[in-house]
Amino acid sequence: MSVKNDRASWLHAGDARCSIPPAVPRKIYRPILLGAPGVGKGTQGDLICARLGTCHLSTGDIFRAAKCSGERERSPALALALVFMRHGDLVPDTTVLNIVRERERCLRCRGGFLLDGFPRTIAQADALGILLEHNKLKLDAVIDYELPLEKIIARLAGRRTCPDCKTTFHVTDRPPREENICDECGGKLFQREDDQPEAILIRMAAYKASTQPLIEYYRRRNLLITVATADTPEETYQRTLAQLQTLPSPATTAAASQFPPSGRPPG
Ligand code: ADP
Ligand code: ZN
Predict the structure, then answer these.
(1) Mean pLDDT value across residues 103-125
(2) How far is CA 142 from the centre of its chain?
(3) pLDDT tens-digit series, residues 176-188
(4) Which of 28, 106, 191, 256 has the fewest C-beta atoms under 10 angstroms from its C-beta?
(5) pTM value?
(6) Where are the domains of the chain?
(7) Interval between CA 61 and ligand 1 midpoint (Å)
């Protein structure tokens, strides 16, 4: 099964509609993806969402979408976020939380959700806990991807992104068929500003200081799953899936609108 969701309601808030089709009887997942920049969260996020039908809620994608939109369409909160993002710094918690709260209903997506890049700090995790409780939703798991630092840096520095369809390539590991041209849509590939060497160092430092503590935070809540990234995205996906499937099965064949209790018992 492959569900391609345009995520307009997540990327642009307002009254845009989610294109996830009506829930089919199947398990509905609600995990978070953790892991340092460059471990391949985005790629895994795409695979998980396409195959499990969850809605891909990436905060980084909101900021990138804002970057592409005209300056006048940006809310002040988004304009401020872009200044931090450009340097590789974390966007301040209050800004991120305002942006996520504006999109709160995406958490209730009938396809379930996959949070990617949020939460990134303890304060964000606490706020998310309150939002979920308020919506009577529970997390299934927090997936932490592991990869040695030198590999992370090589991955980020070689990454090239399509501005139009967001597909990512890698100069050596996943080169496009034609140099600098997107295989999917013909877009002209570029290097993200925050994939430049100086920004990579800042992002790694921000990750260590702010996000790494979340590993312990979720381990204590008995939600942590650790996946060592494999050589291919497919292999990593299979490892992730295997772990997700060992979770106690929540009653998730019903429509998400009924907020079935999901996730592990509190640890
Ligand atoms: P990466 O490619 O580093 O995994 P993302 O695509 O998730 O990063 O996010 C890109 C940038 O957007 C981050 O470096 C940061 O500036 C900003 N950002 C995204 N999500 C958050 C968040 N939850 N809190 C603070 N800043 C964020
Ligand atoms: Zn493209």
Answers:
(1) 93
(2) 12
(3) 999 999 999 999 9
(4) 191
(5) 0.81
(6) 8-146
(7) 8
Quickly name the fold that domain 8-146 has: Rossmann fold (3.40.50)
Q: Indicate which residue's Cα is closest to atom 6 of ligand 1.
A: 60
Residue 118 in contact with ligand 1 by CB distance below 6 A: yes
Determine the length of the chain. Answer: 267
Residue 196 has pLDDT above 80, yes or no: yes
Active site amino acids:
41, 120, 159, 192, 203
> Which residues have CB less than 5 Å away from ligand 2 (the ion)?
162, 164-165, 167, 182, 184-185, 187
45 lines ligand 1 (CB under 6 A): no
Q: Cα of 255 to ligand 1 centre, how many Å?
A: 31
Ligand 1 centroid vs 119 CA: distance in angstroms? 10
Q: Which atom of ligand 1 is nearest to the CA of 87?
A: 16
pLDDT in tens, 142-153: 999 999 888 888
Cα–Cα dist 125/218, whole Å: 9
**Predicted pLDDT at 3:** 44
The residue with tokens 């999901």 is: 262
